[in-house]
Write a structure and sequence with these properties.
Helix 1 (2-55) packs antiparallel against helix 2, helix 3 (188-199) packs across helix 16 (494-502) and helix 9 (345-359) packs antiparallel against helix 12. It is globular, with a radius of gyration of 31 Å. Helices cover 52% and strands 8% of the residues. The chain is an alpha/beta fold.
């Protein structure tokens, strides 16, 4: 019996060792496959460039394809850099037409903080009327002109004197300041500018490379990709700290938007999703800092919505996406739901507006006017304490809501059940309890516009870069969007904030990461 037990122990140990070996080999194969994919895409772009050089500008298709390849290669290179950075960090731990006369616009004075440059014009020496030279100064007119000075690079030379001790022969030298990229040349300000240009101004890296070349500094796109990938890895703790803050809020807003994503090696696009969760308690006078958290997923399955909201508890403002339904179901043991649904009146209104826009229906117009009265009430109580907001809603909004519901039901009996207006009305009536819920708690909002505002920058980026280069590129975008948009919500310049954080990441304790969050930083 003892011999059998020892044999089983030995077999278990050998299987465990075999598992580790196979896992290591699989990682090596994945890295090799990734490198080969990157090489293939580079060859594809070279082929496209050669075709254009040989056959000329036959159409815009080649230019579009080259742009796609540029983005895809940049994304692959960012992923390679992020992976290598993660390995480097983990490794030590594990081992003349006439114009109309118009009224003159009142020009505001130029900001005082702008540097002033004076241009002294030479005074006249001869009178143009009579040719006399006896001129006397009677005054000086000054006019300010707003001008733009292009951004410029500079080389910072760190001089560290070496001192030798005559007593013990030891060498003393000041330590080199920590740099964002180990053994790299970019400073924190440059890396922050590259990130802000890509994710705040939606400027792809290959275009940034062209801009820098015009300024006399040639930086390869692959180099910029390396910087972005490594910074995405190092900014993960800040991203996670913001996510914790958002998820701890008693009231949340959530939504998602599609993102076209290239499939490396296939040359086609698929549809990924960028999810957003917003914590913004300013409408009810809370002093909690606003923040927004983004998460990328390759699909829109219900588990992705649940992963976004993780351990959240409280109220959720959202649209009618069925993937949130599991979060609203009561727990079998406690009987309490993880989240209470708060439906969006802006979403309900939009469906009726679309019908009115097409058909000019008088019934739809009347419903829009009544819903507009609900929003007018909200404007009057924005920023007031929860108790006051609830009292105003109970007195003014609840009676109006009951009238709207009655009008919904009357209109539904009068119109065709297959009409768009009937569909829009049934949408609201089927969610009536959730649409009424904002009147029961002064901390709740009438709509989910906070999440829609957070998605708007993604729509602008999607319009400019057309797609993400890969799933990992979507994850990097979510990480950096979280930091940039949270800084914006707190009135902090994103580029200045990134520069501040990046310059401190190397020596800032992980357990004090909250000190680097936008609302705790003074720039």
């Amino acid at each position: 019996m003892q011999a059998d037990y020892k044999a089983l122990q030995q077999e278990h140990g050998s299987l465990k060792n075999a598992h580790v070996v196979l896992k290591t080999e699989l990682k090596a194969r994945d890295a090799e496959l990734y490198a080969k994919t990157l090489h293939i895409e580079k060859l594809k772009m070279q082929l496209a460039l050669l075709k254009r050089a040989r056959f000329g500008q036959s159409s815009e298709k080649l230019d579009h394809k080259i742009e796609q390849l540029e983005l895809l290669i940049g994304d692959l290179e960012e992923g390679e850099a992020e992976t290598s950075e993660r390995v480097e960090v983990i490794k030590p731990l594990s081992s003349s037409a006439p114009t109309r006369e118009r009224s003159r616009a009142v020009r505001l004075p130029l900001p005082e903080h702008l540097p002033r440059e004076r241009v002294e014009h030479e005074a006249a020496c001869v009178c143009r009327s009579c040719g006399g030279t006896n001129l006397t100064l009677i005054g000086t007119d000054e006019r300010e002109v707003l001008e733009y000075v292009p951004a410029h690079f500079k080389a910072v030379v760190h001089c560290r004197p070496k001192m030798s001790c005559r007593d013990c022969q030891a060498i003393e030298q000041p330590p080199m300041a920590a740099l964002p990229i180990e053994r790299g040349r970019p400073g924190p300000a440059l890396v922050a500018h590259v990130l802000a240009a890509k994710y705040c101004d939606h400027l792809p890296l290959y275009r940034q490379s062209e801009i820098y070349t015009r300024a006399g500094v040639h930086i390869e796109r692959s180099t910029l990709s390396d910087w972005v990938g490594r910074m995405a890895f190092h900014l993960c703790p800040t991203n996670e700290a913001i996510a914790r803050h958002v998820r701890a809020g008693p009231t949340l807003h959530a939504d998602d938007t599609p993102v076209p994503v290239l499939s490396p090696g296939l040359g086609k696009t698929k549809t990924g999703r960028l999810w957003v969760a917003v914590r913004d308690e300013r409408p009810w006078g809370s002093t909690a800092p606003p923040a927004v958290f983004y998460r990328y997923s390759p699909d829109r399955m219900a588990e992705q919505a649940e992963a976004l909201l993780a351990d959240c508890r409280g109220f959720l403002h959202a649209d009618a996406y069925s993937g949130f339904n599991n979060l609203y179901r009561p727990d079998p043991l406690t009987g309490d739901a993880r989240l209470v649904e708060v439906a969006c009146w802006a979403h309900a209104r939009r469906k009726i507006y679309d019908e009115h826009h097409v058909t000019k229906s008088p019934a739809a117009k009347e419903l829009l006017e009544r819903i507009g009265e609900l929003f007018a009430i909200e404007e009057q109580i924005h920023g007031r304490p929860p108790g006051e907001r609830k009292a105003v809603r109970v007195e003014h909004a609840v009676p109006l809501l009951l009238q709207i519901k009655a009008r919904f039901e009357q209109t539904l009996d009068m119109v065709s059940q297959k009409s768009s207006l009937a569909v829009a009305i049934r949408y609201s009536l089927s969610r009536w309890d959730a649409l009424m819920r904002y009147t029961t708690d002064g901390r709740l909002d009438i709509c989910n516009n906070a999440a829609e505002r957070a998605i708007r920058p993604l729509a602008l980026g999607r319009k400019n870069w057309l797609f993400a280069g890969s799933d990992s590129g979507g994850e990097r975008a979510a990480t950096i969007y979280t930091i940039i948009q949270t800084a914006r919500l707190n009135g902090v310049d994103p580029e200045s904030y990134l520069r501040h954080v990046i310059s401190r990441l190397d020596n800032h304790p992980a357990k004090r990461i909250d000190e680097l969050l936008p609302w705790n930083v003074k720039l």
